Amino acid sequence: MLYSRLRPLPRRHPLPNSDSDSAPRPDFADPETEADSDESSEDLFAAFLPHLFPDDAPSFHGNPGQHLLYSSPRYGDLEIMVPSYPGQSDKRSQEIAEGLPRPDGQVTQIEEGRKLFAHFLWSAAMVVAEGVEKADELEASGQLKSTDEVAMWRVKGERVLELGAGAALPSVVCALAQASTVTTTDHPSSPALSGAIKFNLDHNLRSPKVSSTSTTVTIQPHEWGTLETDPWAVQNKASFNRIIAADCYWMRSQHENLARTMCWFLAPGGRVWVVSGFHTGRAIVAGFFETAVQAGLEIERIYERDLVSGYEDGREVRREWMAQREGEGPENRRRWCVIALLKKRDE
């Protein structure tokens, strides 16, 4: 099961005199003396919920400012900081992630939602990480064939761009898998840019527990659709062989900007990984695919993956992608995600 790789670290309080105005500083006090035992017990119980209620699998993990441990069979334990804003309520973040209205009954504003959607590690990001790990392991052992299902996740020597990175787990894993370059981006207002992305990349890529990587890693603020007027975007047009967009589809108003951004940055022969859960419904994800095709992209491969059942005979539990499924309830829908490989239509 994918979720078995993840567990919360004990809650830790920042050292005094922190000057951070956003995400917690990475230098924490001793968790053995500072951890809140009640909160730690609650986190551990929450970590087992996917096992107790598998049909109601979570789409996201962690709370603002929390540290999570992602256990990679290929790279060992990776510590992932979840971004946060100062004074942010854990409960309010979850409500917004689930699409609930504000306490005053008003619909959540786009900018508020954009900010708070960064405050989790999304299951879609774990799907990307797992795929890259498996491809890297098979390639290192000389067993990876171009016809293998996992070959689509190969990144060694490739130029990788992650859009809407949030906690940036896929970027970390792509760097460990020896991508040539990894560029991690998020909206300029995202809390992830205030410390979490840098911590996650620095901490895990320079840890003595993992082998060193020669990958060039950069962090870049970027707003989807801001292309011709962005010097960085102009300089890097058609520069990336692999583009990651994991759970970036909940805002319909941004679908066109996101699709245009993918087309702009995608190099000839490159591919886009689209991975998304259905926590905001199937229709909104299906709508993105329609927009992407209109923008000049082509769906090379698409399927749904069961996030709970894991593997049968060494292969993922999959089923055909469907824009609508008769009689599908929200609980069952959450255990599935869609995985698609996109390319430019004229190639």
From TrEMBL:
InterPro entries: Methyltransf_16, SAM-dependent_MTases_sf
Highest taxon of the lineage: Eukaryota
Protein name as catalogued: Nicotinamide N-methyltransferase
Gene3D superfamilies: Vaccinia Virus protein VP39
TM spans (from-to): none
GO terms assigned for molecular function: S-adenosylmethionine-dependent methyltransferase activity
Bias (Acidic residues) ranges: 29-41
Pfam families tied to this protein: Methyltransf_16 (PF10294)
Region of interest: Disordered: 1-41
A single Gene Ontology CC term: cytoplasm
